[in-house]
Amino acid sequence: MLQCREDVLNYTKQLVHIESIVNTDGEKVIAHSIYNMVLSFPYFSQNPSYITLEKTLQDDQERYNVLAFVKGKKGNSNRTVILMGHIDTVGVEDFNQLKEKAFSPEDLMESLKNEELPTSAKEHLYSGDWLFGRGVLDMKSGVASNLYLLKYYSEHPEELEGNIVFLAECDEEDSSHGILSALKTLNHWKKEHGFEYAAAVNADFVAPRFEGDENRYIYKGTVGKLLPSFFITGAETHVGSAFEGLDPNFIAAHLTTQINYNPELCNEAYGETTIPPVSLKQTDLKPTYTVQTALSAFVYYNFFIHSWSPKT
Ligand SMILES: [Zn+2]
Question: What average pLDDT score do residues 38-66 get?
């Protein structure tokens, strides 16, 4: 099976070279590029209705998902596995002076040799086992593996019992317009082709659980996410009469003190514990400097759950 390494690596590099930062035109470009790539596989040239480039629904941004499927010819099972992955990435501001190279793994790795790096990153850089660049791990290499499998089974449908659906979705890093829009096509195919969806495999990256952890984890099930948000209206006052008002920033800070990193707000299920909530945004709404205290503030927290609901 190891002969797939070169193919997956090449697909990964090809995808990383397309700047597909979420909420930019790059999302459109990468979807078209994947669509054309898959369409050029002989199986899809012969079955063009087995692939679709679909525009997202109710979205201000123009962007697309690519969906395709292979019908297995071994037996007559309708069981279907969805191989899914997102094709957008986060931004590159954190690359600082190297951000021009964030999408060119070879150039980036060359330049990184002149930078001061943490020991583990340095080891990875010189090991030849790692590729650096925005989106390599999160998650174009995952999409690349799915592409490899799609191509392989499109050439060997007689080895496939059941079907596979390939799904490359946009807007994972922001508002999930991609996956939400894809449900329509998945349901449509379910009716039209009798697909019985048995599993969905999301090939996104996994992280070590502790320093030096050599395991590669496969997580079953899903993790839920809440985003408890607070809008705080204080009572404004001139800063010289501080006690005649109530500063909303003060209340927000108190909330954060109680919620952030609080292990009591970790949710355990089946021996697995979520990481505690952390704020993703905390700000007042004052546009510029004045000597009046802020009128209002808001704050929201990332809140992972395994079994709790918004009620509990
Ligand atoms: Zn991801």
Answer: 97
Distance 172 CA to ligand 1 centre (A): 7
pTM of the model as a whole: 0.85
Cα-to-centroid distance, 139 and ligand 1 (Å): 5
Contacts of 231 (CB under 8 A, 6+ apart): 296, 297, 298
Q: Is 73 left (phi over 0), alpha (psi -120 to 50) or beta?
A: alpha
Which domains does the chain carry?
A: 4-91+134-202 (3.40.630.10), 224-305 (3.30.70.360)
Amino acid type, 175: S
Dump pLDDT digits (tens) for 177-196.
999 999 999 999 999 999 99
Query: What is the predicted pLDDT for the residue at 209?
Result: 86
Rounded CA gap, 288 and 82, in Å?
Answer: 49
Q: Tell me which long-range contacts 52-56 makes (C-beta under 8 A, separation of at least 24).
A: 52/185, 54/181, 54/182, 54/184, 54/185, 55/181, 56/170, 56/171, 56/177, 56/178, 56/180, 56/181
Which residues, by Cβ under 5 Å, contact ligand 1, an ion?
A: 138-139, 204
CA of 230 to the centre of ligand 1 (A): 27
Tokens of 309: 């609901």
pLDDT in tens, 111-144: 999 999 999 899 999 998 999 999 999 999 999 9
Using the mean position of ligand 1's atoms as its centre, give its distance from the Cα of residue 9 in Å: 18
pLDDT per residue over 68-123, tens digit each?
Answer: 999 999 999 999 999 999 999 999 999 999 999 999 999 999 999 999 999 989 99
How far is CA 4 from each of CA 9, 67, 291, rounded to the nearest angstrom? 8, 22, 64
Quote the ligand 1 centre to 138 CA distance (angstroms).
Answer: 4
